[in-house]
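Sample intake sheet
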Amino acid sequence: TGNMNYQSAWHKRTCAFKNICYNKKKKVFQFYRKPGSIKTPILFEPKLGHIYDFNVNNHGFVGLFARASPLQSWGPTIVEEWLPSADKVLYLEHVHVLFTHWYIKFNPGHTIWEDIASTYFAMVRLNEYDRNAVLIEYRHFRKKEDEVYQMFQNIIPAFAAKVDSLDNYMNNFSSPLVCFRTIVAGGATTMFSISNEAYTNGKERILYDYRTAILRYHGVNVSHLPSRHRIVLVNKTHTTHRSLRVIKNLVEVKHFIYSTYPKIQLDVIDWNKYTFTQEMHELYKTTILITPCGGISTIIPFLPKGAHAIVMDFYVSKEAYRESDRYRVGESASMDGGF
């Protein structure tokens, strides 16, 4: 899927590659072209004409994460060889998805809705969804104690069999050449930007199914909706994140809600004290969520059907101020662009 007329549109392209192999010695994925055959073009460019390679003009054919630069794009290497016979090399039958994550400080929004979600979207959009799929992290695989790795374990088993690094996964096989019936790659797009709103338009069902699969994996009965109101006010005042996107007047907000709606259950929650599974269950018992903006607010989709969310601005302190931002120290700052 994506733009097949311009080689420069690699970052919006999603592809399923059939019968390609990974050469463990050369550390490259090999796409086989029959020796002596007439070359078949991969793309037709209005300006450049036929294009016969996956890697041209210093970039690959697809992007493996949402904010990839041309140098971080990917494409298999074409080899003029016969496709290896299945009785001589190992062919992996289940779908494998090649991806990588944005290598920054952990942010749940980018990890859940861009890095991981893109792998699910790619399989579904290409009609290649496989519950036993294996997700392969192309590079920068995190250590087990890392928050990104832990989020992988919280999310990926909800729709795939496992996730592993490329090198570690290849070490499971003794053959120097490992072949795949299907590798899916590409399609990762920045979700939290008005300029990319078209990316999610028409994909609401895919997003809903992804969210529902995660809830069910963590034991939430999605058919059991709350029978009474419950307000959750998110406390992020103890955050160590440099942006400090918190509700500065949290105590005042709590008092206002309690005095205005004394008969409605109000809980102030610090998500740092909960496991991810506990978060899912608490969210699904919530009808009104009041949360700071930023990555912490991207758990909103896990609320039950009919619930509401209020995303509050944050106070710009000296620590939170950035010269490039439109807000100044002492002002109330918004992240409305991401919503």
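Comment: The chain is about 20% helix and 25% strand. The helical segments are 108-125, 147-155, 166-170, 197-200, 204-217, 250-260, 276-283.
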